[in-house]
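worker-03 picked up job from queue 'complexes'. Input manifest follows; two sequence lines, order preserved.
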Amino acid sequence: MLSKRIIPCLDVKDGRTVKGVNFVDLRDAGDPVELAAQYAQQGADELVFLDITATHERRKTMIEMVKSVARQLNIPFTIGGGITEIADAEALLNAGADKISINSAAVRRPELIEELAKAFGVQFVVVAVDTKYVDGRNMVHLNGGRLITELETESWIKQAEELGAGEILLTSMDHDGTKAGFDCDLLKKINDSINIPIIASGGAGSMEHFTEVFQKANVDAALAASVFHYGEILIPDLKQELSRNNIPVRI
Amino acid sequence: MNENTKNNSIGIINYGAGNIFSLTAALERQHIPYAMVNTEADLEKHSHIIIPGVGHAGAAMEKLQQTGLVAAIKSLKKPVLGICVGMQLLTAHSEEGDADLLNIAPVKTKLFDKTLGIKIPHMGWNNVNFANNPLFINVKPLAQFYFVHSYFIEYNPIFDIASVTYGNKFSAAIQKDNFFGVQFHPEKSGEAGEQLLKNFYNLRIS
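worker-03 finished. Artifact:
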């Protein structure tokens, strides 16, 4: 049976791991390569690295980090942040990344999804969507939730699937950083409307929240950052808890 | 020359179908020596051969043909392991690009049927039900391996050495004589995958 995946997310800036609370107020949580190896050891099924470096040295720094991670890690990992063209994606692929995640670049130029899928296969292309509830509608946001777009979340995700997205990473900006649980209603609605895997993100605070999102929304994977980085939830405990609730996991 | 007297190393067929950084990194972590195979002479230098592959099976077959190595690969008597699309190349035909393949194992590679209510691609960790086979020595029964694919190899008990269920039951691993194929990515499958790579490297075919 296909297991539900647990995915720690590492925000990386200048080669160091950070995690913001509501995407502001960054705190340093360690060396990404070391952290990645530790997560693999603990039983993480996959890792996501989001690069939030803004300098023009970003790409070079990131490629070096990706290579170091690929040398050490025996599980798959995704790289996101600052990917705007085929050349960025190709450099990451050649450095050993299994998937890339695109967000604002896809909103600005949706054909990028199609181009990446054609060049590297749909399995390589994760479309990350930040969503926020505004005036009764779920709207796609950019820049860590600061910039609203004209795109309605569900229709944008369907469009991304049609263009060749292999997976969706959906982050609820309303839930992110609250530790009050995932946005199960929205995740279920989106999940029921697409035929590609979906990763739930935003709001994980306890093990029950993971059980809830798998049971209620039947998502393929759940992603979290700070609860893992600060040891509030240990992955082996989480897997045992999910397994007790009859959710298929890799133990 | 007897297989056992050759230098033990893995030759990786270098035909440009996908990235192999993760595969070579996994071999390095297991201290398994390897080198790229570009010519027929290179094939002779190694005790074991891996055919990697990511992407489109039809396109991969065209690239493999361009190397001029197809006939030499088909006549190999040493252990050969096809990974993912590299495994699919061992079959007769793929629905991906309606392509004729190496036909080492006369089975077919088919597209997942989404009317079965499954998401495509099949992405993630799935339980592999393997038979008593040297490739799976010291792997826990029903261990999970990491899969990423939209096409699968039809289950055929003659060639199947491990099966997996996603929508329907299909082959996670096949064997025809000295040719092995795995649909999952051992280089991304944690300890189970590393064990499988070691097992392959330890295979001796007399």
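worker-03 released lock.
Residues 58-72 of chain A form the longest helix (15 residues).
Confidence is low (pLDDT under 50) at residues 20-28 of chain A.
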